[in-house]
């Protein structure tokens, strides 16, 4: 593996591993998938290819962040804004 | 332009299933995953955004509690706060700590740090008090913009769009002021590992409530904690007539 990219790949792995701790299906599930994904590409030597794969990894990081945010937002909305949701469904409203 | 104080609370993670202690004195916290209160995340995000837009110079993250709350302060630092203040409270004082004590601490810190804004989450998901922001404003005699879903700084004033029953209310208040963040104020950024690493260099000062002249005596005593009643299973019926008969039998119609 090309040397300058080695550091980036390693950092990408660490970042993904860190984010994976909160994965809904469990940190172990995530780590298995992460390891197999990295192992699958372990023989890639072309720097351009590696760059593309790293960018792919960065996109996954963004997606995970969004996933976690949406989960939290939806949970909060459900818990604290029930009247709003009921209003949208026209449930529990007095009919005049 | 100046300094913003942001309060962050360490609470049991929103996704964890809460269990009541067998003696009904509280909920089980030992070994349970904790994280930053979701509304506090939104408060931090707003403060950091104001700094990025250059309306303010410095964001200070504050949390009250035992040593573990420094993790929460570190998360706030990773999200972009400049420095942290850990107000050490532990043992019985921590268990009895509520909005009154917190707001006294924040009022004292706001004066000490000469803050222009104090931004808090609208409520904590563990106690659902929704009081700390309001009490802090009252103690400081500052205007308050609570349930903020939009904040705009206009010179020495703040325009706040508030989420209220039945819609939105827009108010303009002078600074210094207290704001509390509602769910739709912004989208909090996730603290990634590189940001956490960078945040390790940022300073967290430690102090005690006594240093701020605050007494932690609580006027509230928790008598008992119970689980909510289990929801009864629904009953399915075959026809509309069955439904009407059941509702009649139930006394509903």
UniProtKB/TrEMBL annotation, chain A:
Gene Ontology BP annotations: negative regulation of oxidative phosphorylation; respiratory electron transport chain
Segments forming domain Complex 1 LYR protein: 7-58
One CC-aspect GO term: mitochondrion
Superkingdom of the organism of origin: Eukaryota
CDD domains assigned: Complex1_LYR_ETFRF1_LYRM5 (cd20265)
InterPro entries: Complex1_LYR_dom (IPR008011), Complex1_LYR_ETFRF1_LYRM5 (IPR045296), ETFRF1 (IPR052000)
UniProt similarity note: Belongs to the complex I LYR family.
Full protein name: Electron transfer flavoprotein regulatory factor 1-like
Originating species: Salvelinus namaycush
Lineage: Eukaryota, Metazoa, Chordata, Craniata, Vertebrata
UniProtKB/TrEMBL annotation, chain B:
Record-linked SMART domains: ETF
GO molecular function: electron transfer activity
GO terms (BP aspect): amino acid catabolic process; fatty acid beta-oxidation using acyl-CoA dehydrogenase
Localization per Swiss-Prot or TrEMBL: Mitochondrion matrix
Family annotation (InterPro entries): ET-Flavoprotein_bsu_CS, ETF_a/b_N, ETF_b, ETF_beta_N, Rossmann-like_a/b/a_fold
Keyword field contains Zinc: no
Domain Electron transfer flavoprotein alpha/beta-subunit N-terminal: 24-216
Spans through the membrane: none
SUPFAM superfamilies in UniProt: Adenine nucleotide alpha hydrolases-like
Main location: mitochondrion
Entry GO terms, CC: electron transfer flavoprotein complex; mitochondrial matrix
Pfam family, one: ETF
Keywords of the record: Electron transport, Mitochondrion, Transport
Complex and partners: Heterodimer of an alpha and a beta subunit. Heterodimer composed of ETFA and ETFB. Identified in a complex that contains ETFA, ETFB and ETFRF1. Interacts with ACADM.
Entry's family note: Belongs to the ETF beta-subunit/FixA family.
Chain's role: The electron transfer flavoprotein serves as a specific electron acceptor for several dehydrogenases, including five acyl-CoA dehydrogenases, glutaryl-CoA and sarcosine dehydrogenase. It transfers the electrons to the main mitochondrial respiratory chain via ETF-ubiquinone oxidoreductase (ETF dehydrogenase). Heterodimeric electron transfer flavoprotein that accepts electrons from several mitochondrial dehydrogenases, including acyl-CoA dehydrogenases, glutaryl-CoA and sarcosine dehydrogenase. It transfers the electrons to the main mitochondrial respiratory chain via ETF-ubiquinone oxidoreductase. Required for normal mitochondrial fatty acid oxidation and normal amino acid metabolism. ETFB binds an AMP molecule that probably has a purely structural role.
The protein's name in its UniProt record: Electron transfer flavoprotein subunit beta
